[in-house]
Design a protein that fits this description.
Helix content is 76%, strand content 0%. The protein has 20 helices and no strands. Helix 15 (242-255) packs antiparallel against helix 16.
């Protein structure tokens, strides 16, 4: 249900040499789906060169450009699609992403609603709208979108994640746990749920069970830096066992030294612990390696604010929101606010 192309399938598509506008559009859509935006744009360019009336290529080209935050070029491409077929749902996908990039969440939600009206079972639009609604704390509406996806694809992991997050947002923590447990029962890889489940157990004040669940995940992959970083992030996200979170991040950095996302997680632990100078230093180290890492920009902004550096904080927050308009909501969910 939650299908992703295999590496062999991706390689096969790479080797294809389409000869028609439809063929280039199809391969471009494949690249768009797996996040290879430049390759997607190149294929859509070939499609519209062969057939300037290929509205789907123009629309998806606009979507890819919007994901790259090239908003003006995206809008031009989407307008060309609309001139050919104004009722094409993908036009509204692209325009919603542009508004999301600009922080206009209400406008994005409205456009995604139009896309849903135009295309039956528009699961992408339901999922994107649910994400935005969760960021806006409109949890009941987000839950309806998640359920719309699950009615078509009951095992879709992304929709299951949206569902439990929306339930937790409404205060239905037991319902959220039931969603996770049901997802685990039907999953071929239930381990992917252990971190979320442990975090939710913390919120339910079942801390001994949470600690045991985190330990189970830690024992499963003691030399996996990604898992250790996940453990660190999940624990610090719910402000739980911060010394253990620090140890998990430190262990991850020993395996993968200098990795910006892991440094970012460690900096968040230090921020939670009130070690503001150390947090700022760690965030700055992460940003020296990954200058556009939104969580690090926002986290450093929060640390600077707590140090009384309003100007530095405002600059970091502005830069963070330019990279990821959802980042403020993510920190707010963790209880870290300006």
């Amino acid at each position: 249900h939650d299908y992703r192309p295999t590496s062999a399938e991706i390689t096969a598509r790479d080797k294809e040499v389409p000869t028609t506008a439809d063929g280039w559009t199809s391969r471009g859509a494949h690249f768009l789906e797996i996040g290879r935006m430049d390759d997607a744009i190149a294929d859509f360019d070939k499609a519209v060169k062969l057939d300037p009336k290929q509205s789907l290529a123009w629309a998806n080209r606009g979507v890819a450009l919007a994901w790259k935050k090239q908003n003006e070029q995206a809008a031009e491409s989407l307008d060309k699609a609309a001139a050919i077929n104004p009722r094409l749902a993908y036009i509204f996908h692209g325009r919603a992403i542009i508004l999301q990039n600009q922080g206009d969440f209400a406008g994005a939600v409205a456009l995604l609603g139009r896309a849903i009206d135009l295309l039956a079972n528009n699961l992408w639009a339901h999922g994107r709208r649910a994400q935005i609604l969760i960021a806006q704390r409109e949890y009941a509406k987000a839950l309806a979108d998640a359920d719309a996806i699950l009615a078509v694809q009951p095992d879709q992991v992304f929709a299951q994640q949206l569902r439990w997050q929306a339930q937790a947002g409404t205060g239905d923590l037991k319902g959220a746990l039931a969603t996770i447990d049901a997802a685990m029962a039907g999953s071929t890889d239930p381990v992917i749920w252990w971190g979320d489940r442990a975090s939710l157990l913390v919120k339910l004040d079942r801390k001994d069970e949470a600690r045991a669940q985190f330990a189970q995940l830690r024992a499963k992959a003691p030399r996996n830096a990604g898992v250790l970083n996940q453990l660190c992030w999940e624990q610090v996200g719910v402000n739980f066992d911060l010394e253990q979170a620090h140890a998990d991040c430190t262990a991850a950095l020993k395996i993968m030294p200098g990795t910006p996302p892991i440094i970012d997680s460690l900096a968040l632990v230090l921020l939670r612990q009130g070690k503001l100078d150390e947090a700022i230093a760690r965030y700055s180290t992460a940003l020296a390696k990954a200058p556009k890492q939104a969580a690090s920009l926002y986290g450093r902004g929060m640390a600077r604010l707590r140090k009384g550096d309003r100007a530095g904080s405002d600059a970091d927050v502005k830069a963070a929101l330019a990279e990821d308009p959802f980042v403020a909501a993510e920190f707010q969910e963790m209880g870290i606010t300006a």
